[in-house]
Automatic annotation (TrEMBL), chain A:
Record's subunit section: The complex is composed of two ATP-binding proteins (NikD and NikE), two transmembrane proteins (NikB and NikC) and a solute-binding protein (NikA).
Cellular component GO terms, alphabetical: plasma membrane
Pfam families: BPD_transp_1, BPD_transp_1_N
Keyword S-adenosyl-L-methionine: no
Coiled coil ranges: none
All copies of domain ABC transmembrane type-1, residue ranges: 95-296
Molecular functions per Gene Ontology: nickel cation transmembrane transporter activity
Localization, UniProt: Cell inner membrane; Cell membrane
Membrane topology summary: Multi-pass membrane protein
Native species: Pontibacillus chungwhensis BH030062
Transmembrane intervals: 12-30, 101-122, 134-161, 173-191, 227-248, 278-299
The protein, known as: Glutathione transport system permease protein GsiC
Keywords for this protein: Cell inner membrane, Cell membrane, Ion transport, Membrane, Nickel, Nickel transport, Transmembrane, Transmembrane helix, Transport
Automatic annotation (TrEMBL), chain B:
Name recorded for this polypeptide: Peptide ABC transporter ATP-binding protein
Family, similarity comment: Belongs to the ABC transporter superfamily.
Upper taxonomic lineage: Bacteria, Bacillati, Bacillota, Bacilli, Bacillales
Topology with respect to the bilayer: Peripheral membrane protein
Boundaries of every ABC transporter domain copy: 6-257
């Protein structure tokens, strides 16, 4: 397992380079002159020249990349064009709220998703299954902006239980995390259901029953763990999406996270910030992928042993 | 002879598929006496697995249902048991091993855990004692390094080893009856012989009755005391291994025997049976074998023969009886 982990981590290094290259190229891939883009439409020639010099855009491309990488290694992601603050500081500031919102949302999503998925697989085609799948389909198809606004309307405006937005104590997390988690819960529920239904057809389930185990033990000891193996991968992917910050949910609830930063910097054409967010999101996905793979190996002894040795 | 340990009387099992009822087993009678190995043989699709799952009452997960008859275990009808009583029988009084050793063990649990679970489900013993007993069972089925294997996962073992584990698990509560559904079909010939050996040993040591299901008459000859030949959900012929092999009466049995390659086989034996097992809808009205039988007579198409003398379901045999 250790060997496998080390192998996986080393395998990430070339990928990191590719990602840094893509993030670097981002500014250069946008059609047109990057200096002109940064300076804005009504900038003078002089202003554009200043910017070209300031951002090193007059240098040859390879030199620019070397500088970019050099700065990257020193933790320097450049400055925001809009605020002039170091991008790294801005990302660090925004990462916390998004991470905490993501964790809260995933907690809902896993709790409800797994519970609903298991119940509906076990009671398939009976009323608990139909009811669960009704919720799951609703969860997937209801747009999060609508769900968010409805929740604000009901729980904040009418009942006054929770604030309408902003970050603070635990009460500020309830509505946004539920809004964000509902869709993921629905996806996890449907995935768990189909995975568990497949597992319940396996021969070793019949073996469990032939030993005289109760249905509860058969499901709990033999089915669920096997059914979870694919669910882990899918949940990890969802986690990665949430960790990039949800633009819609963060905007509705005035949440100071990465999603809102992204939409703001896109609106303001704050390229250094956009560039660094791309880098951060890729890095997040890479790390989550690693975690998922390690968890996958933990759940699936076949992978743990064969690829580990 | 003593009382049968297991007796299946007029068992009917059917499946509901898309609102239609498909009869898979139609009126099976079969008895198993203590310490006896009875073979249940027939081509694929004849209803052997359905019969065994009906005895184990493991049809719930398929849309299958026993619709008639009784399955008496030590005189009590298993079909009338509550769920709780059924679970007490499964794995304890009657246990089962399956065709696919590769997929019959849970891939994410260690062998030891799966064995201990089977033991502790039915016996009030400590974890440590259960482990000891599990290792003892692994030794009995001839697994080397039994202690190490307790901590291994199924994928680390070969098919033959896994089937030994399955036998150890099935025998761990010392059942009165072991049902083996094609236990060696998925294994190659040398391994097959070893597994048959293990099962015979088990019978000798524990006096377990074995219902041995196979489509291979060669294996029957090696293993069994008695044989029942199944076709289209019914038993068409039964008798001692000697009777069936030396003097098969039913054309289907003759056909099956003909399909075993044998040196110096008699000329009049069939090489193999023509055609295929008919699907439920295509089953002939009279004798279910009529459409493939080389000796078919007009009468065979109209009326299904009974099991004459409790042994043979063929109109030819009735004529023989009359002329004798
Ligand atoms: N799960 C099922 N659903 C519907 N029909 C089934 C199912 N299992 C078995 N059958 C029917 O029962 C018949 C006998 O099957 P089976 O007992 O598995 O045969 P065997 O074990 O002798 O090869 C098959 O031909 C099929 O029509
Ligand atoms: Mg079968």
């Amino acid at each position: 397992m250790l060997k496998y982990s080390v192998k996986r981590i080393l395998g990430m290094i070339p990928l990191l380079f590719v990602i840094s290259l893509i993030a670097f190229m981002f500014v250069h891939l946008i059609p047109g002159d990057p200096a002109r883009l940064i300076a804005g439409t009504d900038a003078t020639i002089e202003e554009i020249e200043n910017i070209r010099e300031k951002y090193g855009l007059d240098q040859p491309l390879y030199k620019q990349y070397m500088d970019y990488m050099g700065n990257l290694f020193q933790g320097d992601l450049g400055q925001s064009i809009v605020t002039g603050r170091p991008v790294l500081d801005m990302l660090v500031e925004r990462f916390g709220p998004t991470l905490r919102l993501t964790l809260a949302s995933m907690a809902w999503a896993l709790l409800f998703g797994l519970l609903i998925g298991v119940i509906s697989a076990v009671k398939r085609n009976k009323w608990p299954d139909h009811l669960s799948m009704f919720f799951a389909v609703s969860g997937v198809s209801i747009p999060s902006f609508w769900l968010g606004l409805m929740m604000i309307q009901l729980f904040s405006v009418q009942l006054g239980w929770f604030p309408t937005g902003g970050i603070g104590g635990i009460e500020t997390y309830i509505l946004p995390s539920f809004t964000l988690g509902a869709g993921v819960a629905a996806i996890i529920a449907r995935f768990t259901r189909s995975s568990l239904m497949d597992v319940l057809k396996e021969d070793y389930i019949r073996t469990g029953r032939s030993k005289g185990l109760t249905e509860f033990k058969v499901i709990n000891r033999h089915a669920v763990r096997n059914a979870l193996i694919p669910v882990v991968t899918m949940s990890g992917l969802q986690f990665g999406f949430l960790l990039s910050g949800s633009i819609i949910t963060e905007t509705i609830f005035s949440w100071p996270g990465l999603g809102r930063l992204l939409i703001n910097s896109i609106t303001a054409r704050d390229y250094p910030v956009i560039q660094s967010e791309i880098l951060l999101f890729s890095l997040e996905f890479l790390l989550i992928n690693l975690l998922v793979d390690l968890l996958y190996g933990f759940l699936n002894p076949k992978i743990r042993y064969e690829e580990g040795s | 002879m003593s009382e049968p340990i297991l007796s299946i009387n007029q068992l009917y099992t059917s499946f509901r598929v898309d609102g239609e009822t498909i009869p898979a087993v139609e009126g099976i009678d079969l008895s198993l006496y203590p310490g006896e190995i009875v073979g249940l043989v027939g081509e694929s699709g004849s209803g052997k697995s359905v019969t065994s799952l009906s005895v184990m009452q493991l049809l719930d997960e398929t849309p299958g249902e026993v619709t008639g008859g009784e399955v008496l275990f030590q005189g009590q009808d298993l079909l009338k048991f509550t769920d709780r009583q059924k679970r007490k029988v499964r794995g304890n009084d009657i246990s089962m091993i399956f065709q696919e050793p590769m997929t019959s063990l849970n891939p994410v649990l260690k062998i030891g855990k799966q064995l201990v679970e089977a033991i502790r489900e039915h016996q009030r013993i400590s974890q440590t004692d259960a482990r000891k007993h599990a290792i003892h069972m692994l030794n009995q089925v001839g697994i080397p390094r039994s202690e190490a294997i307790m901590n291994e996962y199924p994928h680390q073992l070969s098919g033959g080893m896994r089937q030994r584990v399955m036998i150890a698990m099935a025998m761990s509560c010392d059942p009165k009856v072991l049902i083996a559904d094609e236990p060696t079909t998925a294994l190659d010939v040398t391994i097959q012989a070893q597994i048959l050996d293990v099962m015979r040993n088990m019978r000798d040591q524990h006096n377990t009755s074995i219902l041995f299901i196979t489509h291979d008459l060669g294996v029957i000859a090696e293993m069994c005391d008695r044989v029942a030949v199944m076709y289209s959900g019914r038993i068409v012929e039964q008798g001692s291994v000697y009777e069936i092999f030396e003097n098969p009466k039913h054309p289907y049995t003759k056909g099956l025997l003909g399909s075993i390659p044998k040196l110096g086989a008699k000329e009049d034996r069939l090489d193999s049976i023509q055609g295929q097992v008919p699907t439920v809808e295509d089953r002939p009205k009279g004798c279910k074998f009529a459409n493939r039988c080389p000796f078919v007579m007009d009468h065979c198409w109209e009326e299904e023969p009974p099991l004459f003398d409790g042994k043979n379901r063929c109109w030819l045999h009735e004529r023989e009886e009359a002329t004798e």
